[in-house]
Amino acid sequence: MKFIKMHGAGNDYVYVDCFSQPVPENLPELARDISHRHFGVGADGLILVRPSEVADARMQMFNADGSESEMCGNGIRCVAKLVHDHGIAVKDRLKIESGAGVLDLQLSVGQDGKVDRVTVDMGAPILNAPDIPTTLAPSGPVINVPFMVTLPTNHHLGNAKMTVEATCVSMGNPHCVIFVDRATDELVLELGPLIENDARFPRRVNVEFVEIISPTEVRQRTWERGSGETWACGTGASAVCVAGVLTGKTERRILNHLLGGDLILDWDAETEHVMMTGPATEVFQGEWGMS
Length: 291
Ligand SMILES: N[C@@H](CCC[C@H](N)C(=O)O)C(=O)O
What we know:
By secondary structure, this protein is of the alpha+beta class. It has 2 domains: 2-120 and 278-287, Diaminopimelate Epimerase, Chain A, domain 1 (Roll), CATH 3.10.310; 129-272, Diaminopimelate Epimerase, Chain A, domain 1. It contains 4 helices and 18 strands. Bound molecules: the ligand N[C@@H](CCC[C@H](N)C(=O)O)C(=O)O.
């Protein structure tokens, strides 16, 4: 199986072009094996680029633990680059089908004729609690809702309880945004997995810890459902843009600094759609097979 390793702001996936070869079998198992940082290629997950009946291509994505997600913001920018640079559809506007519907993408082509940046119309956020889904409210939006987490008994702080404020947004996939003074390792690496797997999120959740730098600039660290800490999350950055406006902390257009690079987000007041702009990079190509 031929593959292409790509990343968007350091959020790295193994991409498989299923226009030129058959769709591989046992996808959850393949995602786990190929994503392994020591025994595989190493990635945050696996993304298939498949033919679509309604768009230029269809993206199907799996996290590193083999679970399938509806949508990947950094991934869809790389899918657009792959579709353009590898000759599947050489256009500067593309439609890509995902679990969150068919999205419109505007490609920016560098001097070498290859795509270097992509703007994605991420669509309108979903704010109704049962649709996110979360049980933090019976219905309606979840904004700054106190959320108590009990640390495990073997934790160095003991069986302590911590309360954070959760603002929940779905961008096709579920996100819990928590504004903090400092996004420390302790918060991201210890609270992240507890919140991801909390019963109040019936389909688990992606967790964003966000520092406000100014009303137009934030810094984000992400604990992703199914992959752990990643260096960026495009749907998460979009959810943060929406959460910042809902909580009155930021304006509609923000610059978001993530561990692996920057994204620009704009929650359009007229369309209610979130526009996300960021880089897409091809790292290398390879072949995966049993020898
Ligand atoms: N990194 C992605 C999101 C990938 C899927 C996520 N872990 C989930 O399970 O929903 C992004 O850039 O959006």
